[in-house]
């Protein structure tokens, strides 16, 4: 479906195929799902330099970054395959029968997660591999037992098509049903809506803008049957610069953040766009070093001309707000489609009065808020919306003395970092990449790490089933050797 | 807020108090939450005969049933308290740091579930204790660390008010913050909407009708910030009567189902409203016994006059459909507000042609569908909507020979029973009381059993936190002795 524009009828045919594949794929043992995922990793690796070259042309991301991201994508596929096979995510629970219970006998009950059905995934502009065609959402859906239909990101459609061929090859080699994976290239809103509203679409994964993520959620809300929409829509990722910490190491913290703010031309959803401190010499010295460091950073080419244009506009709007001071701009002039590293500053009061300053400026831009005291910093926190991450730069003294401030921060974030930077999202079970709205549409689920598999599954209880007909995961004797909760005790036996 | 009509301003004041309570309550250790829940159980027990008497007056449910349900409510509170304390539900995951990892050091990351915030619960008409004021939703929310605001069911408002006093007493005795529990009596849609749409409402639990449950979901969709709505809206709970099983024991199966259909005047959300078999002598003999048994069952007083009126209307509508035959009606005439046990029958084709027959008739009513063969039975299944339960009455031979039919059934249900009845919902970890829409608005969560706690929680990752400031659940050395996944291995150490 790559060249000619696809129709609503094509979408229907695609989802029909996907549903048919679902009814086969979900019966496959965990081992076979894992095999498929590992085969995709192999096929992506086999795309070699072609893939890197294509992605470089489409996204302007540098070679090293793309090779790193490709490695991450392969790691994700393999690591979610391992998790899939380990089976702990199935939440197998068994309560055995008690025929002698009074007044009524207790039946045998066994529960596990089963896949939801076809998942529609919208790829991200800023991660052409790791959050796109064979990225985290796709890997999680395959692990859960769901077929995937990708809406390719138009900014890297050729890269997406290449990755799609790798998935189809892997599917063929490992005997997957036809329809296990579909690939849609379109810029039509009508087609996007048809994908979300099709009866056989059972969940949606999305990484991108607030506007885009909310639109998908609203389309889903128009359905007769509600389906979960997992939109990860980025955030401004506030960093709280606590007084004792700044007294000890304002310069080091400033250097660390100059790097984090400008890394990858600021195009991470965990980019720290808001730094909040308390007025005084230490914050001034932090600002001075941050400004010096940011001026040294050259502008970089952004992912695509649309993003570069938005950056120029949003940055101009932010800098033009009342009481906003421009603290530092890169010493190097920006070429076409480049983003200029920029730091601004405003008082706590100016921030509280102006919601424009609470919005993400996607790119290498950060604003430093100078609060007059801790009370104002807390007021600022209580006015912030939901965030993927919040970071506290704090000494042990700062932490011990600011329990109430820390509690306020907990209300609004999905990941809470102390003395680090929010950029850099580990792929592991303990990662939560999510957060209260508007960071995501569902704060209860992560889009990074193997717990993301649970987005695409629901429990089914099997009551009074003869052992031989139960799924292997729930059979007596635990033939798969997975962790299960039997009569309220976790066990492998 | 019991006597005078409450206002939108009162709702705001209530949720403000609830939010304040949330910020205290969530900091309490699991042990203290459990203590509160156990104290509620004690206070409910202490209400003694007063509670039973009041509920009998309001619901017309018999003494024994209400005493049983009170016991179940107390059991739920104690059992979810145990689960809360055991801490397995927190899904604690730890990945330890690796400072030597190349190219970048790996940070220490620890994740656990934290409570969402205030939960609004709509009590059910058919379970004045177990699914109402101090019922499963409330117990699950308290276990998760969330305050609760109850919208009392107007059909048993005095019962609800009594239970509320028990909760407040327990709260006082165990030192809970003011605002941990709120109680709203109203019939106003505006107030209902204000409860769902308040900024501080973070989740909704509901048990009741499709219309009611969908209305709450739609109100929630109008919010700026999406919140999860867990509406359990009942279902028709199809039962598939397989040929070999009927050949062996048509009479026994019929007797079993005559009881299940008419139990508690058919007022269970798991009441089997649809029995599907294949035309022939065995199905005829099943129908004959079922009719004989149902005729013997006397009508019973329904929960309230509104439900009795709906039953009369819906039953009349169902019986008046083309090609629907009335098979059995209770030999005893119904008094005012009573529901008459009734069995109807129709062909597979009539069922396929008429969506009215797919709808639940809440009360002691069931329709038997006579399919012409297994193929038609499968067609019927593929036309059914989502269900809380599906049941297969089947011999091992039936099961072995009908894998494709079983797969179709799996698509549409939350609990899948073999050779039993769907009525009777065990309170245990392996119970899934939920199912695809329209059984619920979110098939991924249960409203019975301790896994229901997870409806009201979200994960937070703590990155690079000094050990002393981490929550106890995530500290080195596992001071609470809970199950945690450490570097991908489940362990208590």
Question: Can you characterise this structure?
Answer:
The structure is a homodimer of 493-residue chains. By secondary structure, the first copy, chain A, is α/β, with parallel strands linked by helices. The first copy, chain A, folds into two domains: 8-233 and 443-486, Aldehyde Dehydrogenase, Chain A, domain 1; 238-418, 3-Layer(aba) Sandwich (Aldehyde Dehydrogenase, Chain A, domain 2). Helices cover 41% and strands 18% of the residues of chain A. Chain A has 15 helices and 19 strands. Chain A has a seven-stranded mixed sheet with strand order 11-13-14-9-8-15-16. In chain A, helix 12 links the parallel strand 13 (342-347) and strand 14 (365-371). In chain A, helix 1 packs parallel to helix 7 (189-197), helix 2 (30-46) runs antiparallel to helix 4 and helix 2 crosses helix 6. Chain A is globular. The interface between A and B is large, with 71 and 71 residues. Strand 16 of chain A pairs parallel with strand 17 of chain B.
The top level CATH class name of the largest domain in chain A: Alpha Beta
* pLDDT < 50 stretches of chain A: none
| Helix and strand composition category of chain A | alpha/beta
Compute the number of strand runs of chain A. Answer: 19
- The whole-number mean of residue pLDDT values of chain A reads 96
CATH topology of the largest domain in chain A: Aldehyde Dehydrogenase, Chain A, domain 1
């Amino acid at each position: 479906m790559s060249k000619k524009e696809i129709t609503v009828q094509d979408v229907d045919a695609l989802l029909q195929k996907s549903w048919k594949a679902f009814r086969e794929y979900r019966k496959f043992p965990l081992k076979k799902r894992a095999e498929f995922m590992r085969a995709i990793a192999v096929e992506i690796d086999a795309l070699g330099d072609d893939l890197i070259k294509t992605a470089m042309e489409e996204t302007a991301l540098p070679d090293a970054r793309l090779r790193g991201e490709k490695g991450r994508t392969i790691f994700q596929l393999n690591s979610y395959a391992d998790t899939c096979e380990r089976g702990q995510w199935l939440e197998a629970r068994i309560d055995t029968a008690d025929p002698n219970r009074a007044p009524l006998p207790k039946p045998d009950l066994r529960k596990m997660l089963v896949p939801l059905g076809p998942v529609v995934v919208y790829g991200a502009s800023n991660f052409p591999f790791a959050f796109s065609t064979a990225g985290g959402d796709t890997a999680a859906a395959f692990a859960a037992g769901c077929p995937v239909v990708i809406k390719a990101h138009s900014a890297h459609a050729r890269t997406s098509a290449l990755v799609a061929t790798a998935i189809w090859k892997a599917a063929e080699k490992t005997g997957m049903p036809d329809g296990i994976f579909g690939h849609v290239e379109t810029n039509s809103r009508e087609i996007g809506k048809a994908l979300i509203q099709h009866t056989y679409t059972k969940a949606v994964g999305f990484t991108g803008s607030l506007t885009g993520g909310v639109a998908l959620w609203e389309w889903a809300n128009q359905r007769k049957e509600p389906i979960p929409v997992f939109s990860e829509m980025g955030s401004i990722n506030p960093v709280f610069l606590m007084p004792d910490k700044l007294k000890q190491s304002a310069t080091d913290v400033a250097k660390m953040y100059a790097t984090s703010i400008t890394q990858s031309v600021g195009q991470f959803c965990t980019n720290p766009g808001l730094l909040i401190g308390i007025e005084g010499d230490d914050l001034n010295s932090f600002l001075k070093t941050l400004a010096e460091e940011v001026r040294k950073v050259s502008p970089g080419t952004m992912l695509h001309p649309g993003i570069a244009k938005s950056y120029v506009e949003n940055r101009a709007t932010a800098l033009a707000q009342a009481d906003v001071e421009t603290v530092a701009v890169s010493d190097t002039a920006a070429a076409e489609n480049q983003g200029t590293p920029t730091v601004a500053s405003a008082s706590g009061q100016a921030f509280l009065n102006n919601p424009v300053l609470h919005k993400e400026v996607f790119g290498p831009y950060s604003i430093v808020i100078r609060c007059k005291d801790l009370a104002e910093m807390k007021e600022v926190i209580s006015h912030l919306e939901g965030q993927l991450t919040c970071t506290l730069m704090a000494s042990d003294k700062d932490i011990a003395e600011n329990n109430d401030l820390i509690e306020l921060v907990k209300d609004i974030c999905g990941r809470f970092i102390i003395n680090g930077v929010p950029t850099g999202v580990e792929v592991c079970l303990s990662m939560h990449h999510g957060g209260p709205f508007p960071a995501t549409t569902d704060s209860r689920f992560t889009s990074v790490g193997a717990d993301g598999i649970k987005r695409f599954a629901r429990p089914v209880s099997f009551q009074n089933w003869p052992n031989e007909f139960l799924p292997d995961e729930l059979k007596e004797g635990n033939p798969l050797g997975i962790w299960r909760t039997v009569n309220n005790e976790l066990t492998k036996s």
